[in-house]
Specification:
Length: 547
């Protein structure tokens, strides 16, 4: 795998003393206090940041042919403004003479419910084939579901893409606001590493069991126990539930399939600076709650009330703050009041999505909010889909734009990983890794192993009164660029650690125009079609019905 090496020997092997004692630390671990940031004392006009962190989509899978949609009859139409800039997408050569064994094919709205692709750490590297990008069908192709036969999963689907007739809302937001076509997962691999990079800009040091894969005497963690005799530190490369969560696999008593982390995260820095914040996730209040797979009902013509294909709203390994003793809410305790949302109380900044709505309506929006949809609406192939994801995105953004804080708010929409979907761009390799898990990511480790990256390219949009209009930014950024923006805006540039990837992250500020905020009515969309509703900016009339 090719790529410019930006950093050598990023940090030495980490040794953690008294691990079992660390795992017993109380939730409210106290950090050294930083200089407090006065209310509203931000480096930019953005006083409220909302990060919507969705699931498992590559850039090409959602934006490969942007801004050109097929516009078949009976589907929501997308027609781009004449001055729409181009993106680094799928050109004629890539669409018709692609080096992979299958050619990219457009997926229609009726194919919204697809199978899940293979998005493991090693499989994704094999698909990229040391920079040739020609083995996606062999490396990450998904398999048809035996329990949900309505999933669309023909051979070669890993290469395929949606356009503006299915991901209509995202393309419409891109028309009115700003997007990046050069944003990457910080490492290869699945959801948990991506979530950890969002909030901690690192996937080490993980506390895991003694029987993990070892390279050069250093363990790399999968779903192994973080406690017990011989517990060691390592690097996460896979999905394992958080140690500090009663809803994790095994419940509150069996921690054999969980993992913990010992370092700091962005929540710790915000707490030390007195900045309000929160993680809001669907199903957090009741982690046994389930919803039918709405797309399955739509495709199969099944009454949702009788649909056996349900998915649990809350996914523990999608909740990164629950891996850390300082920011976890293990028992999923409710906030003591709406007024305390974003502040320190028994909820410890971990909330249900309903709490975000309550805080917004009360004019009590935290400075920094992370939103995670209930699973059936998070976009993850296999149990969600772009149409159900669109419903969540549009309903959420329609509400946010009517909050009293909207004039000072920025919303970021981005993703935890690519799901293994094809993307034709290989990011620079800023961190080499040479373990049995790696496939051509160098011959040495730039710091801890099993952190090869940057990984796949992912969508990234900025929606704000301060976002540039119909703008595509080409600056190199990654998942940790969000942490960098938070640090630069609220924390005087303080980084999470000397080794964390936020030190290397590119800036997202090129997507903003802080000198010229827009005014006028909000951009309200129809959640079913993704098209602007009557009366919204640039809208000739009501949205057309969905097929």
């Amino acid at each position: 795998m090719r790529g410019q090496r930006h950093l050598a020997s990023r940090f030495p092997v980490l040794v953690v003393v008294a691990i079992l004692g660390l795992l017993a630390l109380p939730t409210a671990t106290v950090l050294a206090q930083a200089t407090p940031v006065a209310a509203g004392a931000t480096a930019t006009p953005i006083q409220h940041l909302i990060v919507i962190f969705d699931e498992n989509e590559s850039f090409d899978h959602y934006f490969g042919t942007y801004p050109n949609a097929t516009n078949p009859a009976g589907e929501p139409a997308f027609r781009a403004a004449a001055d729409t800039p181009s993106v680094n997408g799928l050109d004629v050569t890539l669409l018709t003479r692609n080096p992979n064994s299958s050619q990219p094919v457009r997926l229609d709205r009726r194919h919204a419910l697809t199978c899940d692709q293979n998005h493991e750490y090693t499989a994704e590297q094999q698909a990229y084939d040391r920079g040739l990008l020609d083995r996606f069908p062999e490396g990450t192709q998904g398999s048809p579901s035996t329990t949900n036969p309505q999933q669309f999963c023909p051979p070669g689907i890993v290469m395929d893409y949606f356009d503006g007739n299915t991901v209509t809302a995202l393309w419409t937001y891109a028309q009115h606001f700003a997007m990046s076509d050069n944003n990457f997962g910080t490492n290869f691999g699945p959801s948990t590493p991506g979530a950890l990079h969002l909030v901690a800009a690192d996937t080490a040091p993980a506390v895991c069991g003694p029987s993990n894969i070892v390279f050069g005497g250093v363990p790399v963690c999968g779903a192994k126990p973080p406690s017990g005799p011989g517990a060691v530190t390592g690097t996460d490369y896979s999905d394992a539930d958080p140690y500090y969560d009663d809803c994790s696999k095994g419940g509150p008593s069996d921690k054999s399939q969980t993992m913990a982390f010992t370092g700091r995260n962005i929540g710790d820095l915000l707490n030390a600076a007195g900045v309000t914040w929160g993680w809001f996730q669907g199903g957090f209040d009741d982690c046994s709650a389930k919803h039918p797979n709405v797309a399955y009902d739509r495709v199969a013509g099944i009454d949702p009330a009788t649909d056996p294909h349900t998915v649990t709203d809350y996914s523990p390994h999608h909740e990164p703050f629950q891996y850390y003793p300082s920011t976890a809410n293990p028992h999923h305790l409710r906030p003591t009041s709406v007024a305390m949302i974003g502040h320190m109380d028994r909820a410890n900044h971990q909330y249900d999505l309903t709490d975000f709505v309550a805080a917004g309506k009360a004019g009590n929006l935290p400075a920094v909010s992370f939103l995670k949809a209930p699973s059936y609406q998070d976009g993850h192939p296999g149990y969600s889909d772009p149409l159900d994801e669109q419903t969540f995105l549009v309903d959420t953004l329609n509400s946010i734009q009517q909050f009293p804080e909207w004039s000072s708010t920025a919303v970021i929409i981005t993703y935890d990983d690519s799901d293994g979907w094809y993307d034709h761009v290989l990011g620079p390799i800023i961190n080499h890794s040479a373990t049995p898990l790696d496939d051509g990511c160098g011959t040495t480790n730039d710091g801890a192993p099993a952190r090869c990256g940057y990984g796949p390219r992912l969508p990234f949009l900025v929606i704000s009164p301060y976002a540039k209009t119909n703008y595509v930014d080409h600056a190199l950024i990654d998942q940790t660029s969000i942490a960098r923006f938070i640090e630069d805006n609220w924390l005087h540039g303080r980084r999470i650690s000397a080794q964390s990837f936020d030190n290397l992250a590119g800036s997202i500020t090129g997507m903003f125009d802080f000198a010229h905020p827009r005014s006028g009515p909000p951009l309200l969309l129809d959640p079913a079609t993704g098209e602007p509703t009557s009366g919204a900016p640039g809208t000739p009339g009501a949205a057309t019905p969905a097929s």
